[in-house]
Fold each of these.
Amino acid sequence: MSFSLQKKSDTLCFFSSFEELIPQIAGLKKKYESYLIFSDDFVFNLYGEDLADHLQTVGKPVSHILYPQGEMSKTWECATACWNQLIQSGADRSTLLIAIGGGVTSDLAGFIAGIYMRGIDFVVIPTTLLSMTDAAIGGKSGINFGGVKNLLGIIRQPRRIYLCEKFLETLPERELISGMAESVKHAVIGSEELFALLSKKGILSGEKSDLREIIIKSAEIKIGIVSRDEQEEGERALLNYGHTFGHALESATDYTKYLHGEAVSIGMSCAGYVGKKLGMVEEQFIEKQDSLCLSLGLPIKLPSFPDDETLLRLMKKDKKSISGKIRLIVPEKIGKVISIPDVPDIIILEALKEKRLKDERE
Ligand SMILES: NC(=O)c1ccc[n+]([C@@H]2O[C@H](COP(=O)([O-])OP(=O)(O)OC[C@H]3O[C@@H](n4cnc5c(N)ncnc54)[C@H](O)[C@@H]3O)[C@@H](O)[C@H]2O)c1
């Protein structure tokens, strides 16, 4: 059965099979003349042909554009190759782009569809936990550029987000665990209840209903924040909790060492130490947050490379930093974080030093 999570704009819908999905797509208010599946090569091999076969039943032309799987495809070169393929396929404003895949797919799809012809419509079918709980929601899209994560991008909402947890059955465990990091983030930002649910023993291998609840609760938190502040003029920035450190780790290691959620997990731990230095949280908070991440199989320790100075330099390049001043989202307690516009370098360096000492002792 499908249902809608966001009553107002009806954007998030669950489905359980492609048979059930196709009438939802065909029944969208705007009538499209063609469908274009957008995916990475790996996900397309798993699900793309089946989706294309089902879409054919609508009686409109169906084509596809594929890119090589992984974060390394979030580049200007890849985006340009996709735009060229859009031109070759004859895509226009009567085309619906159907993005199926993880967060890289939704980030690329929104950027490509949002710029092409000043914007063509797209829908997203997230297939990783991370994209179901976070990346596919909220309309942020973009690519990495100039050594900075997500430097180029736009905010453009998909027409719909279609959710089905069955895709998670083929997702490698490391990717599933990585996806949990964004749910931990949502819990620390705004829900003690979600934090408790994530802390339930064996949550990853347990009941399917638990996973669905995690997806729904995480998505609700993100949808709530985005619907109040779509353009990130205030509250939306809180969703970057753990990300300023995380993005710096990802770009310092050329997007090859850490999955996004893994870098965010380490980033949240670092943010906890900054919170402690600023007198906002006690050691107990850090331990609680770190233990949850560890119990889910997420990393929390800082690597020896990049060193603290390099991390700091990269953090200053982050989009959130203004005139070299680092804006950080810092915890107050489980369920509440705040934005600090100008965290002094010395506080960050001292926090990282304390964290490294603690990492060594563990
Ligand atoms: N726009 C946003 O608001 C937002 C929020 C959080 C993260 N992100 C972005 O999301 C990206 C990370 O997303 P991700 O972790 O989903 O990465 P991803 O899209 O690269 O997917 C991870 C890997 O899993 C494979 N895969 C996907 N679905 C599968 C399935 N069902 N079965 C088997 N394999 C599958 C993919 O081919 C890929 O190799 C990062 O680039 C991050 O910046 C964006």
Note: Residues 40, 42-43, 46, 69-71, 74, 101-105, 107, 127-128, 130-131, 134-135, 138, 140-141, 150, 167, 170-171, 175, 178, 182, 259-260 surround nicotinamide-adenine-dinucleotide (CB under 6 Å).
Amino acid sequence: MKMTINEVWHKSHPMPKNPSIEQRIEWYTKHVKHCQCRPFPEKLKEEMKKLSRAKTP
Ligand SMILES: [Zn+2]
């Protein structure tokens, strides 16, 4: 099975140098829609849960 990498998308959407959690979530959310070279990190999913929990009272 070949991993599909959307090089054009990657070149126009570089990951920020020192990304915050929010920036990483945003990047990966866009990334999964355009490219399948790597999965959404499990750690980041946990961080998303923490963030949504923090928002809801
Ligand atoms: Zn990719």
Note: The chain has a mean pLDDT of 93.
